[in-house]
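Mods, move this if it's the wrong board.
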Amino acid sequence: MNALRKVDDWWMWIELIGFDNREPDYGVGDFLNLTGFVPGAISLLMNDPDFIHRHDRNMGDAPFPPSFCSYGTHPFNEERECQAWTPNQLKGLIRTLHQHGVEVYFNVFDTCSNEAFYNQYPLVLYMNRHGERMHSICPWKHIKPSLLYADFLLEKLVPLLQDYAFDGFHLGDGYGHPRIPVYDGDFSDDMVTQFLQTANLSPPSEINGPCDNDVELIKKRAGWIWQQYRREWIDFYAVRIAAFVRKITEALHAHGKKVTVNTAWTKDPFEALYRYGTDYQRLAQAGIDSFIVEAAASAMEIDDDERWGKRRARYLDCFTAALMLNRAYAPQITMQYLNGVKDINEQFQVLRHAPMALQSEIFNLNNVFFVSSAQNIQRCVSGPVACLADSIRAHEWDWLREHWELACSFGPASVLGATLLWSDRALSRQVDDFIATRRWSAHRLLLHLLAQGAGLHQIARIEDLDVLRGTLVILNPHTWPEDELAAVMNYRSGPVIMIGGRPADLAPADLVFEDVCPSHSLVCLCYRPLRPCPVSIKPDDQEPFPSDVAGIEDPPYFPQELKFRPVSASFLQNCADLINACSHNITIARGADFIRVMAQQNACGVIRLFLRNDKHVYVSPVVDLGRPIKSIRVATSFPLMPVVPDGSRFSVKVPGRGMTVLDVDLA
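Not the wrong board. Structure tokens:
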């Protein structure tokens, strides 16, 4: 057999059950023959933090408990029953993967299967706002009064990485960010004492002292912090988590090991900060080597139910928007996206149950771009992390490789559409604005503009304004600093569109329209539009918004949406139409309710179109490029029929929830 191609940017997340400890090479050869390539890295999901806690260089070779060998101790996959691995077998597996050129990381979650650990170290458990200790480790706390959990962890983690020859540590859920939102915890004496000392605050006398053993006092103290010092509590978490990650990273780097970190529960910079006290820029500055962006949209879409509430947009738009904003907020660090293909423990199988949704996810997430003066135009992510990668059949790996390759096979010189502009300083102000008003965040605006078909697939930072050309979009300009808005107002290389709260002291816009929703309504300002844009806005049937903004309860689970003020669908549609009218000539003459377009052009003038169908059945849209078309080539395996242009128009069939990709030569 020919040597397999190594692809450094393609990673995998996999459990030990994905390999076979009965084979001399631990099943690595058979596994790679199935995948058809050699990944740049594999992260072994060891699942249980006791894998670190109990590590001892003199522990011998007794079999690991089941919680180390499969996620959630699920008993089998399609290939084999869960095997009892030993430390020496794990070392052999890592050695074999290294022989194939694969870097090996590992990760654990914050939930321990060993009850003895919880009984021995109850202080390190999360205490929620109801005074309940959860079976979840809070890594930013003390494991006992004189010892931080981070120091306890490192005493075991550094020798573990050395003994097994791991290349790095993967900080997953619970370690790179909290498991529960900061408004739900941790409100223990430990964390509150750290907070009070950091913020130099004194609570009311009733709760000024130990509260851990009094549920009612815990509740009162949690309410006092969240209602009176919400922003300070969020910022404290951001600093505290970054300090934990910095301590881990510096210790591991000193021994030649790497650190990769999951983003916080699929969230953009704003919700990661507001809901989980996690600041991606601080984590990047803490020295981590890369982010894995949680973006398993198709897995979420096929597992959606009443728990998460009604959504007006796809998770795919939500996660695409978050990916773009995360890239802009942490511009220097490598990012890969979590490609959720299947998970036995979490019980989803996208590869077989929703392959077209997975196709859309792969194409969408690989084709949003970041523009900078240093690197010109680049994809927001470098590649996928297949999750989870065990018991996937050879033809399914063929399918994944085909789509991963096609997603990145076109080298654009430009993205057809507008450029979203990002400001770090606006993010900080946005947190305050949301606390005070509950107006939409930049992320929520972006995801709904994408859902309405806006050509907004490229992002840049305000510092790189001088290299930009074409239409700019500013979201929530009322949160932007005056000097940055002034720089935008001096931009003369294309139209400028601002959507959000009305900023003060700006020159009159050439086109202005405002939403019809009352109180803190959003406005759209456009300077130098390219063509007339008729506007028609009508109110939606929406529930009354609570008058007590401070008293709104925020949701406990990450898929659930924050409570925002209402914004009418027609306002968003008018904004999306304006963006498209000012940035490209592509229109959907038929099928506009379901078809979304991503468009790029290479240096030779060829246009690549990604046509996404949000309906569950085939749609045959009529697409108008506004310019005569010479020829069209279908890049995807469907449809196989030729697509014949008619002047500037053509029609093509797009599979339900999937994409058709075309390369178009203009006449």
